[in-house]
Recover the amino acids of this structure.
């Protein structure tokens, strides 16, 4: 199976499971700039489960649309586990979805520091009962970092969907 087909299979599996369980999803993206949402909308029938996609590139947008606390951004920065967690939780509530996956990171080629290098990405995934976060350090150019982050975000969303019980019609 080619890499493109494997990637497509991931979003198809996720959307299929969401539809089967009558669950909904939303996305809150910074460095991926809508790439996760774009992958989801490649799947026919996704309109039945995809509520909303937020591209919140600026800190102001993260605060305005996702209710990320100003203190979180000041203390930990936009690229942090704490911000990813608040983005996921805020996106879930803003979109009234069962799952929200959020991505924040440094895609490069500039913007990295010793503490937060280019390729550093935090992904948060929220359900009603739990918010999980993961830290990644991806290699490659800007597109490669973004593509790898989108892939991992879809994997986290699939894991969350598997963990949830089906809703009634």
């Amino acid at each position: 199976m080619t890499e493109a087909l494997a990637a497509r299979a991931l979003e198809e599996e996720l959307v299929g499971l969401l539809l089967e369980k009558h669950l909904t999803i939303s996305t809150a993206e910074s460095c991926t700039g809508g790439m996760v949402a774009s992958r989801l909308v490649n799947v026919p029938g996704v309109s039945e489960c995809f509520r909303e996609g937020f591209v919140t590139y600026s800190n102001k947008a993260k605060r305005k649309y996702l209710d990320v606390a100003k203190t979180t951004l000041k203390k930990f920065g936009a690229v942090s586990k704490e911000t990813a967690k608040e983005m996921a939780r805020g996106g879930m509530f803003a979109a009234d979805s069962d799952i929200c996956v959020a991505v924040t990171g440094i895609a490069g080629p500039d913007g990295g520091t010793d503490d937060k290098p280019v390729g550093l990405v935090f992904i948060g995934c929220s359900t009603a009962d739990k918010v999980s976060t993961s830290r990644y350090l991806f290699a490659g150019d800007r597109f490669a970092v973004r593509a790898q982050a989108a892939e991992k975000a879809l994997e986290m969303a699939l894991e969350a969907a598997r963990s949830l019980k089906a809703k009634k019609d």
